[in-house]
Amino acid sequence: xxxxxxxxxxxxxxxxxxxxxxxxxxxxxxxxxxxxxxxxxxxxxxxxxxxxxxxxxxxxxxxxxxxxxxxxxxx
Length: 75
Fold this sequence. Notes:
Layout: H1 16-29, H2 35-42, H3 46-52, H4 65-74
């Protein structure tokens, strides 16, 4: 895994954990990372990551009809 350092201004009582989960959730939402990869970025289990995504307005489910049909076919 590559390490990237971001300088983020302090805003209120924000924690670095919040930034990592937010970043991971958005990268997952944009299909740049899998759920497993995103959970590693957030440094939480895959299950915990999926549960946390809702806080950031990200659904663990694809919004593409093609993906849904593929999932149904593979079930």
